[in-house]
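ingest -> fold -> write
write: protein_1
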Amino acid sequence: MAFKFRHKVLFALSAAVLLALGALLAITLWRLQSAAEQRVRIGLVAAQDAFYRSRESQAAAVGDAVESLASTNPELRAVLASRNRTGSDPFAKAGASHGEDLLESSLPFLPLYQHSAEFAVADTAGKLLLVKDRSLLPLGDTPVVALEALKGAPAYDWWQANGKTFQIFASPVVVQSEVVGAVLVGYPVDHSFLDPLARISRTEIEIAAADGASGEMQEIMRNGIRYLGSVVPIKAPSGRAVGAFLVSRSMDEELRGARELRNQLLLIGAAVLLLAVFLALYLANLVSRPLETLGRAVREVGSGNFGFRVNSAARDEFGNLGNLIDEMAAGLQERERIRATFSRYVDDSVVNEVLKTGGAEVLQGQEKEITILFADLANFTAFSEGKSPKDLLRDLNEYFASVAGSIDSHKGIVDKFIGDAVMAYWGAPVSDLAHPEHACQTALEMAQRFKTEFTPRYPTLGLRIGLATGTALVGNVGSENRQNYTVMGDTVNLASRLEGVNKTFGTVTCISNATAEAVKDKVVLRYLGRVRVAGRSEAEKIFELVGDTGKAGIKREAIEAYESCVPLFEAGDFPAVSAQLRPFADAGDGPSIAMLKRCMDKRRHDRRDGEWDGVWILGK
């Protein structure tokens, strides 16, 4: 059954409203639920932090009390020092014979002893000399926490005894810079300890089994109420797991406001949908009649009747559309003969040139003077290791988008992307007398955007650019079914080699002599010397593209010093070169570092008939 346009408009608008309302409702509820879960997570983290701070505060207090006890209680010092057989304490003799009695007669009157649920003293052998509550810890047993404290650092543990949980803090007793024993102090982990933590974090806290401690957030159902909770492991300073507690918070309570908002949105959505139905009916009737006329015109033009005209007298959008159809029909016959060519090209400048000239001159191979750019990422192989293909493709696409934006903004054409490399050119197919300048401005913008957009995030990556100006063959390359508009020739190879030259000189952009001659009055350059690259028999003068002439921060001293050393280098006066360039090399100037290295490495010098000609010999 075929539906009329008015029915389709009705269905489409109603469906769009339903989808929009559903998406709005889903997104709103999702955001509210995410916010609620985030608040719960923050509360759970706050509970953990409060517990750890409370434990650290108690441990510090116990440590201070034990340190004070060791310095003020002669009986404790005497007993522990005598059992350790060290020290010259005057009470040592008495402590050796009546150690346990001395402790039991003096320590129970201390506030630290009286206010704790458990109090114990251990000697360096781990033997317990005094235990306050032997139902919690039988005399003679050596707990792990005591052995850890005897190593010289505070220790921590949980004890389960008599159906209760206790926190045990152990601190070493130091006499004359030597550990002579340890003191264990225990406090119950009950509501008086957990309730303040729960109030601070607005959570529920209870003791959990240590073997179930995972630390992962998970949903918990209690009496039909949904909670978000986490079993938090408790560890001693040594890393030993000693216990755990469960923190949780009601998600149903947090989402109460979200449910109320959902009901309100449903009511509003029903009203909006009803209004959309009436609006769709009105619009369908309004546009159906002129659309039928326009549809007939499209059918006529589509069938090849380019003489058909709508001749609409309306002044609204439908009238404008009818006039556009008339213009289209008039132009289709003229453009038909080059219609198939459009699908072969991507760059708008190529398509426009084909439309203007008919394609014969542009598509056939022709020699033109152009400027070619090659750009590549340094350390890309190391950067890509360990990355997933999805993440690597995302990073590459972001980089290519930045590079293509710079090229497009300076009238260049991106020829191709090769792995992480980019090839572009200026001066074809549309002539551009300033193509060297536009290429240099592109390279400077690419380097600046890479420095600001990518270097802070990917400090290991680098950018290398090569520019060359000269004659190249421009035109279609490929088979009859598939072609590519590109450039070929020695200038292309030179630009590719110059990109790699940056690695030797520690530069970002190297340009050919022809490019430098064309832009020398518009940008700041540094003459690097004569280089013989792979695939070329003659040496080429190359230059570093430093920056715009008016750009601040360009190190002209380093440039002048280097350029003054080029004749000395070519003459073989290596000591003079080293003396002048050493400060700039130490400051990190790449070309200065490269020339000093070349001066010091005599084995790499290129000599002809025993004579040094100063030409840099570089491979691929």
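write: protein_2
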Amino acid sequence: MTIRMLSRRRLLATVGSAAVATGIDGIARPYLSRAADRPVITHGVQSGDVSVDSGMVWARTDRPSRMTVEVATTDSFKTIHRGVFVDALPESDFTAKALLENLPAGQDVFYRIRFADLAEPTILSEPTTGRFRTAPSDRRSVSFVWSGDTAGQGWGIDEARGGMRAYATMLKNRPDFFLHNGDTIYADGPIAAEVKLPDGTLWKNIVTEDKSKPAETLAEFRGNFKYNLIDRNVRGFNAEVPMLVQWDDHEVYNNWWPGETLPVNEHRKTSYKSSNALLLAARASRAFHEYMPLRPAAAEAGRVYRKIAYGPLLDVFMLDMRSYRGPNGEGKEESYGPPAYFLGPQQLAWLKRELMNSRATWKVIAADMPLGLVVYHDFANKWGVEAAAQGMGGPPRGRELEVADLLSFVKHAGIRNTVWLTADVHYTAAHYYDPNKAAFQDFEPFWEFVSGPIHAGTFGPNDLDSTFGPQLMYIKAPAKEQGQNLSPASGLQFFGHVAIEGETGIMTVSLKDVDDRALWSTKLEPKMG
């Protein structure tokens, strides 16, 4: 057996040489001149949180350097409209993010990033170019893709099988942006060099030191984000498609909640040196914000929940169902209080306020967990509530109290055209929530669409809880005889595609697989007035 462990030096050379001169077409062109002296753009470029007139850009280098960003509206960069700079220092692991502002609406924006060595400012890196499109200010048609779950369950980068192929498939759809519903990494999931598949063949992962054990240190959490950026499909996608990102549990460890101590959960079997969930979450949050192109929150450091206004047709509400929740207990609380928190009172009040103030035709609620699927904290013993549904049917209890309050508010406030998008359960499905078939009926009907994993093990299906009346309209999950934790080689990797017509406002939602097959779709007409 050959173990493909990449040393830090070799990893830098492998990723850096591919990323240094990568342009918009994603093709690496190695350079020779003074290569050993120059700063290196180590993991490609990214953009995110794009609005009508702004967007975040990101890159990482290999030494203390100043990142300069040039902005143009053509890929020739014949006319450079503006430039910004920010320093990449050891404190941020040499990552740097910059907010590009005062951009034209509905416009392709090209950005070119270089790094200047702070010790010798005349020494510059080769440039790397990326692009994104700003949100429209008029009723131009909009499209985007969504999914979740990257590099989970030990399924890493097998280059012989094409790497993380679903990212290349999503790019073929030419979306305006990518909504990543969380589990952007699996910090608790080590990557082994080889995994034997049911057909007798081997899945051969690229392996790095930081992915050889569950992450505990800040460097190890950072290393998980670096691992995904080794993949050429991910880097090529990031250079062309901006990302709206949220997090869930695996950015820290499986099923965590604030205040949890590790000895009471499945991680007692691992080598975690600390039992403090919040300490690990603090390190994970820092790495997440360093490596993801989301805007920093002025009101609360490290905050993930936010609204992305994407023109008159669409507002996206990015939730955080992880950081403010109560314990993953039995979910039997009949009154609302800290044990029943899911979003938490502050985030729930924010969401109500922002939904009420939204003037967009469609309000997409990006949830890192589904509403009506039963997700156990301990699947083996079917114990504990990990998501909102507590698996009992009947009136709302536990975290369902918060969901019921929100759905009732949406109805009585006259808020139209809410659609929930999520991932987490590692299969794809469409759910129609019908109050006429629900135990709790004080809400208007709505859709929830589930899609994932984008590159992880495939599981499911999960049971539906009848409290809010979800009706299963479509599902694609492993057949019983296939078992669980199917590798990406099985082809059961999924993402969703949303297209909103500018003239009519009709939203078409399609569920797709890694080979770009449209498995199921539906058209939703907006309710006006």
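write: annotation protein_2
The chain has a mean pLDDT of 92.
The first strand starts at residue 5 and ends at 6.
pipeline exit 0
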